[in-house]
Amino acid sequence: MEMLKFLFISFLNNLPRLYKILHGNSSFHWLRYSCKTLTFGNRNASFTVNPSVIKSSDIVYSFGIGTDISFDLQLINLYGLKVFAFDPTPKSIEWLSKQKLPENFKAFPLGIANYSGEADFFLPKNENYVSASMTSRQSDSFVRVKVKTLADIAKELGHTTIDILKMDIEGAEYDVIDDILKSDIKIHQLLIEFHHRFHPEGSNITRSTIKKLKQSGFLLFYVSQNGEEFSFIKPDFNR
User: Fold this and answer.
1) Whole-prediction pTM value?
2) Which of 32, 50, 72, 94 has minimal CB crowding within 10 Å?
3) Residue 65: which of 104, 109, 117 has the closest Cα?
4) Do residues 19 and 26 make contact, with C-beta atoms less than 8 angstroms apart?
């Protein structure tokens, strides 16, 4: 009975995406794990976590922060977590330099990739926008930035475990996830904004990536109404 209730709730939560699904712009995903959820951050920069497993000693990696760190600040203010944030985009770096940041928030002008070196970040056509992309050529303007793998970043910061890893990296997440799954870094909660709208395979690439995550022990517990933000957890995670 409880399973039927869980499946029914999962179906209802996915109803707002039916329009996108019917038009081939999204795909349906059953939730695989039932837990309490809380969503933090402003409307266009929000991610959802399982709060019941969060501890004050948790480490958060936040990739792709742009000019909105509301998600990160709420985790710090509510739980006292340490957040390590990463974004090499010029506008993000400039914006951060003008902010009064809490002690638990550490920012790095660095991108994540499936290799360590340099990458071209293509800037948006609209100068009022912030997010640049490694994979989507939004314009002919680009900046060359420093990127590293998650394993190299974690090694330099002295971490073998990441309790919450958030990624909003404008289409580069597919290659990065493949690299993460090959690493020895332990991750408890994985929060991803998928950009299948940038990819030639569309929602199929997201579907196949979710399958890889499931095979590696990550269970899906939340999908946003727009079908882009996904939250996963490893139930057998050992700190």
Assistant:
1) 0.86
2) 94
3) 109
4) no
